[in-house]
Design goal:
single chain, Rossmann fold, alpha/beta, 4-stranded parallel sheet, globular, 12 strands, 41% helix
Length: 359
C-alpha cells in the first residue's frame, strides 16, 4: 500500500506564514547568575516549580534541574507538575504545553515566560475548521497529536504522543476503525505506512522538522562513515528513510546513549543537544542539515517560539503573576478524556508512561 502526500485527502491546513525569527536571549556578563539567583528565591517563596521542554535553552534546563523541577517532553512536563506538591507551575515551552499542564492540573496556577510562544502544528489546526471536518466524517475516530490546542484535544477521541502513536493506531486498525489524524502530515504518514490504517491526514507540519534535507544527511553520512542518524518522525519521509533510529525526543536521547557509534547526526530541534550530550558525553552530535536543493533556510534546526523562553521572561512572571494559562472548564473536562484514554491504553499495554514523549 502506498500513499502520496502530494495529493492531500483533506482541505489544506491553515497556512502558518508569520513565523518569527529565532532570537536567543542575550545577557550581559554576570546577568545570568543574578537572574538565576533571584528566580531561585522566588520559586521557593511562591511555592512554584519550573518544568522546561528539551527544546528550550540550556540555561532554563539547568535551572529547572537545579531547583527540583523537570526537563522533559510535553506530556511528562504536565504529569510531573501534577505529581509535584507545588501550587504554581512555570512551563517553559510553547502554549499547547502550558494548556496540557493546565488540563491535567486544573487546580494549579500555570504560568509561562512568554504567551507568544506558539507551535506551527497547533496554529495549522484551528479548532473550528478541524471540528467541521470531523463533523463531515462522523464514521471516523479522531486521533490528534499532543501538539494541538485544548479545544482540538476536546474534539478528539484520542490524544497520542509520538512514541505511542503507532501502537494506538495499530490497535484501532485491528478493530476495523477508520481514522482522522491531525495535525502533522509527516508523522501521520509515518504512522499510516507503519500500520496500514485507513487515515485521513490533516496537512499540518512543524517548521523545524520539515526543513531537514535527505541529500544533506547523505553527504554527512558519507563524510562520517561511522555515524548513526537519529530522526524525529515529524520529519519528511525521505529523511525518515535514512534513519538508524526513528523516535520521540525521549527515545532519541536514550538511543544516543545506547548506540555504539561515536558520531550522531540528529534530525530534531537542536535544543535537545543539552540533555543528549549529558546522556552521551563521549559522542559528537551534529545537526542534520537543512540546506541543500530546495532549502529555504540555512539552518532551521531551532524553533523560533521555543527561543522566546528566557530567564528575563521567567523572572517577570514570577514577580508579576503575568502570563497565566486559563482554559474553559468545559473544554478542559472534554480534553482530559482524550488524554486519559491514551494513558489507560498505555497502562493496559504495559507501556511506561514516563518514557513516552509528547513531541
Amino acid at each position: 500500500m502506498t500513499f502520496d502526500l502530494t495529493e492531500p485527502v483533506v482541505p489544506p491546513a491553515t497556512p502558518v506564514t508569520d513565523v518569527p525569527p529565532v532570537i536567543e536571549e542575550l545577557l550581559a556578563p554576570g546577568e545570568q547568575e543574578a537572574l538565576t539567583a533571584r528566580i531561585k528565591t522566588l520559586l521557593v517563596e511562591q511555592d512554584a516549580v519550573l518544568v522546561a521542554h528539551y527544546y528550550t535553552s540550556a540555561a532554563l534546563q539547568k535551572l529547572a534541574e537545579e531547583t527540583g523541577g523537570c526537563v522533559s517532553d510535553s506530556l511528562e512536563m504536565a504529569r510531573f507538575g501534577h505529581a509535584a506538591r507545588a501550587k504554581t507551575l512555570i512551563v517553559a515551552g510553547v502554549r499547547f504545553m502550558g494548556e496540557t499542564a493546565k488540563i491535567l492540573n486544573p487546580e494549579k496556577r500555570v504560568l509561562m515566560p512568554d504567551l507568544r510562544a506558539e507551535c506551527s502544528l497547533d496554529l495549522s489546526c484551528p479548532a473550528d475548521a478541524f471540528s467541521r471536518f470531523c463533523d463531515a466524517h462522523p464514521d471516523r475516530e479522531v486521533v490528534v497529536y499532543a501538539n494541538t490546542s485544548a479545544a482540538v484535544k476536546a474534539r478528539a477521541d484520542w490524544m497520542v504522543t509520538s512514541s505511542i502513536a503507532v501502537k494506538v493506531v495499530a490497535h484501532l486498525h485491528a478493530q476495523g476503525r477508520k481514522l482522522i489524524w491531525a495535525p502533522d502530515r509527516y508523522l501521520g504518514d509515518y504512522v499510516r505506512k507503519t500500520t496500514g490504517a485507513d487515515m485521513l491526514l490533516w496537512q499540518g507540519s512543524c517548521v523545524v522538522h520539515e526543513k531537514f534535507k535527505a541529500e544533506g544527511i547523505r553527504a554527512l553520512t558519507a563524510q562520517y562513515a561511522d555515524s548513526a542518524v537519529l530522526v524525529h518522525p515529524e520529519s519528511p519521509a525521505s529523511v525518515i528513510a535514512l534513519a538508524d533510529v526513528v523516535g520521540s525526543t525521549t527515545q532519541l536521547i536514550r538511543a544516543a546513549a545506547e548506540l555504539p557509534q561515536k558520531t550522531l547526526i540528529v534530525a530534531t530541534d537542536n535544543g535537545i543537544f543539552h540533555k543528549m550530550q549529558l546522556a552521551a558525553p563521549g559522542k559528537t552530535l551534529l545537526e542534520a542539515p537543512t540546506g541543500g536543493t530546495g532549502a529555504t533556510c540555512v539552518s532551521c534546526a531551532h524553533c523560533p517560539w521555543m527561543a522566546m523562553n528566557g530567564l528575563k521572561g521567567l523572572l517577570h512572571v514570577l514577580e508579576t503573576g503575568a502570563n497565566e494559562i486559563s482554559i474553559d472548564p468545559a473544554i478542559g473536562r472534554r480534553a482530559v478524556v482524550s488524554i486519559n484514554r491514551m494513558l489507560e491504553f498505555a497502562g493496559q499495554a504495559g507501556i511506561s508512561v514516563a518514557g513516552m514523549s509528547g513531541d
